[in-house]
Specification:
heterotetramer; A alpha+beta; B alpha/beta; C mainly alpha; D alpha+beta; A: alpha+beta; 3 helices; D: alpha+beta; three-stranded antiparallel beta sheet; 15 helices; 8 strands
Chain lengths: ~210, ~160, ~350, ~375
């Protein structure tokens, strides 16, 4: 191609491609818009949507699996093993609660909405809802306290646990003394194990964090 | 070319410098090279007719507690085979020859390894921190790294 | 009552009052265009744009202006404060002064001078000084870049623009803009783009050249008002915001106002030169001073719309290509047209 | 390329003294696609040197991963690496982890992963071309592309509940099977999307101004591209016929019928900005082909069958790589006898591709630098990790 044909060809192509572009944009201009007026109209959320975490505290058995599954540590749980004499009620699925959950905080500001905490929950009490408008003016408002135990309740629970623990140690000491006495008396009789009532779920084995 | 063949050729060429190899029952067969010889091995691997490893797909630094390692994932665009080379150096003298002159892509990878692990690449043309700010102290990917309390007066852990 | 009459007869008072007409027009027009541009852009992009304030967001431009008025007027510490403050007004004055010679209708023209179009070209060049000043005074490298680009661009594009005007002046034989318009009166067939009010042979010969001159002037006018595809001085993806990066509040608003006013100015010149100014397309039907103002503004707004439409369609040129278009495409074509028109007019 | 301009001379013939100017492009600059800082040395409008400074978005996710309590928890972190192509990030991690753990997943999982990865590739290319258009000053194609990207995001949201950071592909399977209406909706999307592709192709890619801006700019020769280990559209734009999906097949890409797009230098030289952009544009058609085949032959199976309850690999290492939208996305996992990964290193394609910018932008104009940067298609989340 000589320089002159390139020159005119360029001009021709600029004009024609501009015309094509203008035709396309004009066609789009008269075609209907695709946006919606957000606060007035909202999109329908699909069923699996993962937005704000919701926790049904009544169903929580305090197993702490969710806190372990969380990659960003936004779930903060404090639990206390309840004395077996105490009745804490049942979850909606009929599982018996055996642990005081003195604190169940979710820092939703840290939450990364991955949904990993939802799967391990044995009672399905954690779920991700379709609520996505929950901005706050104060960051501390984003820490959601799902625990329903009031401080006084926590105090009484603590006292109960302490009492029970003391009883248990006393019992154990007594049992040990008894066993020692029995051993001394007749070595043939094997000692009975410490009373194991209501073995806690497996996952509780490694929860030494509580007072 | 299979990993075994590559190993045989390298072993014949470099002898002592090729330390060991694990070629079977691993996800990626690798050959361990003495740290001082990595540059020569790389030149050979890139220029040899049989290898033609012209593409360094990844260079990663690792802290093995007491030792620092560098892993090279090589690939050949023409022959479509790959191999992994590994070197290890003691943490107190972390000097590895740079392969920047062979594969330009190693430049930033090595800067990253220097930045995060403190591996010193000899003869690197521009060894500066790349991801962290220039006045950052320590090398975060070391296993014994302690997060500083403050950085320029800003609290670090949130 | 008599005193008032006397006061009105005073030429200075009268001209001051007359000068208010364009500024009121510019303000109203700027609001409309602000709204229009946003809406056109949005619909081109399948969006809705303003919908909240007033019916379909019609009150939004007022809110925007109010916001800009309230904003803090920031002058960077290292800026040249005097020049920095002066620049936006200079830009606006250059544009505003040019409105003096626009024949808005058969009955209204600010100043009916014989060298109207020459004055317009001269006065609107003042804009360059303002832009250069703003870029320099901002003490910002991007701003300096933008203003230098804009100076080079506007000066370069003035040449094909003026050559295109020259072609029209050769055909009409006058530089008075009111006369120019009157010469195209009498219906759509008398507009210069359709060959003007001449004998049939001459008319047909003129049409292609007039069309080329029209395109040349349209392009160079777009370059002069710094709009896409020629918006290099404020190319946001390269120079952040070009010469007005450092401006905020009222000064920024003035820049904005000047840009829109300039947009109408060049569209009006296109209309006057090629599309019969305020003349009605139906001859004397729908004529008269009021209708003619209507036609003038409508035609002007149409070209404003074309500008907007192009802006949201095309990518941006590069600096050297910009110069290429001006010097190697538009200028030779314009010269060629002038020679051809000279022949046609003589024969 | 621009011919070097002569230094301006005074009327007496003396050369005028000119100075080079250093400007900082970024971290807050509209066209750095994030928080990249380029120290640009300019001689007038001509770039004489570019020094990239990264790390403004660095969060050392590799360190985070070493503190996880399981391999599963890493996935939300790799999601956030290249936040416009999370699915392929997950895929790279999952491919590496499955290689390490020697897990075999069923065909359905492979197929769904491929569909997702290809949809993600389209979504990512839409952003790449759209924002590239903005760099060139054309705003409108960007929004046309975003309009259709929205539909892809809706498909993703329907499947896994999230729009951007999915946590969908798990080691050994998927978090959910696809919902029943997914296939239908995908078919619908493909039909509408082909129209948009054609339209934007006319509006942007074949616009004369756009061609003039991009052709013969930022030419990356073949050997330089390989030496810099560029990958993806960057490498293919330079004329290297190499695609991991075909040349080192992972999952089941070898089952499908499609072509590798290579830059041909149609408007200028092979390896220029236009080629790189066009490779992306044409790759979307190929992705559509793959998706069409995959949804037509989607096998049955249980997608969560192979998900291990507890992941504790034998010590060792594995390097898994997939063809992400930006190129070879590799994840290098070193495992010790623990539930926590010992070391995870991501080979981010954008990081590697970006390192070539100094080479290819010398002698270009300032506006070309913007074009070059747009054509590399960097995502700073991935560059800085």
């Amino acid at each position: 191609m000589t320089a002159l044909t390139t020159y005119f060809n360029d001009i021709y192509r600029s004009v024609s491609s501009t015309m094509t572009g203008m035709r396309i944009t004009f066609k789009q201009m008269i075609s209907p818009t695709v946006t919606i007026q957000y606060p007035h109209v909202k999109m329908k959320m699909p069923d699996r949507v993962r937005n704000r975490l919701f926790m049904n505290f009544d169903d929580c058995i305090g197993c702490e699996l969710c806190a372990k599954a969380c990659p960003v540590d936004c779930i903060d749980i404090e639990v206390m093993k309840a004395p077996p004499t105490e009745s804490l009620g049942e979850t909606s699925t009929g599982q018996k609660k055996r642990i005081y959950v003195t604190k169940f905080d979710i820092d939703i500001a840290k939450c990364c909405y991955c949904g990993l905490c939802v799967y391990p929950c044995p009672t399905e009490c954690l779920k991700m809802t379709d609520v996505y408008e929950f901005s706050e003016y104060d960051r501390s408002n984003l820490i959601y306290n799902f625990g329903t135990m009031s401080p006084s309740e926590v105090e009484t629970a603590k006292i109960k646990v302490k009492q029970y623990d003391e009883e248990q140690t006393a019992k154990k000491a007594a049992a040990a003394a008894q066993a020692a006495a029995a051993k001394a008396a007749a070595a043939a009789v094997p000692p009975t194990a410490a009373p194991v009532q209501n073995a806690p779920p497996q996952s509780l084995d490694s929860t030494p964090t509580q007072q | 070319m299979t990993a075994q063949e590559i190993y045989d050729i390298l072993k014949a060429q470099f002898g002592e410098a090729v330390l060991e190899a694990k070629l079977e029952n691993v996800a990626d067969p690798f050959i361990k090279i003495a740290a001082g010889a990595i540059k020569e091995v790389s030149v050979f691997a890139k220029n040899d007719e049989r290898f033609q490893f012209d593409y360094l797909s990844c260079l990663s630094g690792v802290d093995f507690k007491g030792k620092l390692g560098v892993t090279y994932h090589l690939y050949s665009m023409t022959l479509r085979h790959k191999i992994v080379l590994k070197v290890e150096v003691p943490t107190d003298a972390p000097n590895v020859p740079s392969v920047e002159s062979i594969w330009k892509t190693a430049n930033w990878h090595e800067r990253e390894a220097f930045d995060l692990l403190g591996i010193n690449f000899l003869e690197h043309p521009d060894q500066r921190r790349i991801l962290l700010p220039d006045d950052w102290e320590g090398h975060p990917l070391r296993k014994d790294y302690q997060t500083p309390e403050f950085y320029n007066g800003m609290k670090v852990p949130y | 009552m008599n005193e008032l009459k006397l006061l009105l007869e005073n030429p200075i008072v009268m001209s001051v009052l007359l000068a208010f007409v364009p500024i009121v027009f510019i303000l109203v027009y700027a609001l409309v265009t602000l709204y229009g541009e946003m809406k056109v852009a949005a619909h081109i992009q399948n969006r809705l744009a303003y919908m909240e304030n007033g019916w379909h967001g019609t009150l939004q431009p007022f809110a925007d202006i109010l916001k800009l008025l309230q904003k803090e007027d920031i002058i960077p510490t290292a800026a040249d404060k005097f020049l920095f403050s002066l620049a936006p007004y200079l830009v606006f004055v250059g544009t505003y002064a040019s409105f003096a010679v626009l024949p808005f209708s058969s009955g209204f023209i600010g100043s009916n001078i014989d060298l109207g179009i020459l004055y317009l070209v001269a006065a609107s060049s003042l804009v360059v000084v303002g832009l250069l000043m703003s870029g320099w005074a901002s003490n910002n490298k991007w701003s300096l870049f933008g203003s230098l680009r804009s100076a080079a661009q506007i000066v370069s594009y003035e040449i094909p623009g003026v050559l295109a005007i020259l072609g029209v002046v050769m055909v009409l034989g006058t530089m008075n803009m009111q006369t120019m318009t009157q010469m195209q009166d009498g219906g759509i067939q008398n507009w210069l783009i359709f060959g003007g009010n001449f004998a049939l042979g001459q008319k047909l010969a003129l049409i292609p050249f007039m069309f080329i001159l029209f395109v040349i002037y349209l392009l160079s006018s777009m370059a002069e008002v710094n709009r896409t595809p020629f918006d290099l001085p404020e190319a946001e993806s390269e120079l952040v915001q070009g010469y007005n990066t450092e401006y905020s509040g009222m000064k920024f608003a003035i820049f904005y106002l000047a840009e829109y006013a300039n947009l109408f100015l060049v569209s009006a010149v296109v209309v006057i030169l090629f599309f019969g100014g305020w003349t009605s397309p139906f001859g004397s039907f729908m004529g008269g001073p009021v209708w003619s103002a209507f036609w003038f503004i409508m035609k002007g707004m149409f070209f404003v719309f074309v500008n907007i439409w192009l802006r949201w369609t095309l990518p941006r040129l590069r600096v050297d290509q910009l110069m290429y278009v001006s010097w190697k495409v538009l200028t030779p074509f314009a010269l060629f047209c002038i020679i051809a028109i000279g022949f046609i007019m003589v024969v | 390329m621009i011919e070097t301009l002569e230094k301006p001379k005074t009327s007496t013939g003396k050369t005028l003294r000119t100075e080079e100017m250093i400007v900082n492009m970024g971290p807050q600059h509209p066209s750095t696609h994030g928080v990249l800082r380029l120290e640009v040395v300019l001689d007038g409008e001509i770039v004489t040197d570019v020094i990239p400074h990264l790390g403004y978005l660095h969060r050392c996710f590799e360190k985070h991963c070493e503190h996880m309590t399981s391999y599963q928890q890493v996935i939300p972190y790799v999601d956030r690496m290249d936040y416009v192509a999370s699915m392929t990030n997950e895929m790279a991690y999952v491919v590496a982890a499955e290689k390490l753990l020697k897990i075999e997943v069923c065909d359905r999982v492979h197929y769904i992963r491929i569909i997702m990865a290809e949809l993600q590739r389209i979504a990512s290319h839409l952003i790449a071309i759209g924002t590239f258009g903005i760099d060139m000053g054309a705003f409108t194609p960007f929004l046309y592309y975003f309009r259709d990207r929205e539909k892809i995001l809706e498909l993703f949201e329907m499947t896994c509940g999230a729009r951007l950071l999915y946590n969908y592909m798990w080691i050994g399977g998927l978090s959910h099977d696809i919902p029943p209406q997914f296939v239908e909706k995908t078919k619908e999307f493909i039909v509408g999307f082909k129209k948009t592709l054609q339209e934007v192709n006319d509006l942007l890619n074949y616009n004369e101004i756009f061609i003039k801006r991009t052709a013969n700019v930022g030419i990356l020769p073949k050997d330089l591209a390989i030496n810099y280990a560029c990958s993806g559209p960057m490498l293919r734009g330079s004329g290297v016929n190499w695609d991991l999906r075909r040349d080192d097949p992972y999952t089941m890409y070898d089952k499908f019928e499609w072509d590798v797009i290579v830059g041909k230098g149609e408007m200028g030289t092979v390896g220029d900005v236009w080629d790189r952009n066009m490779v992306r544009q044409l790759e979307m058609w190929e992705s559509l082909r793959i998706i069409e085949q995959a949804i037509a032959t989607l096998p049955e199976g249980d997608v969560s069958k192979a998900i291990p309850k507890r992941i504790r690999p034998v010590p060792g290492d594995a390097y898994g790589r997939v063809e992400g939208p930006r190129g070879e996305l590799g994840v290098y996992i070193i495992a010790e006898d623990s539930v926590t990964p010992y070391r995870i290193k991501a080979r981010a394609p954008a990081f590697v591709n970006l390192s070539v910018i100094t080479e290819i932008s010398k002698g270009a104009m300032l506006a070309d630098l913007v074009a070059i940067m747009g054509s590399i298609d960097i995502v700073l989340g991935e560059v800085d990790r």
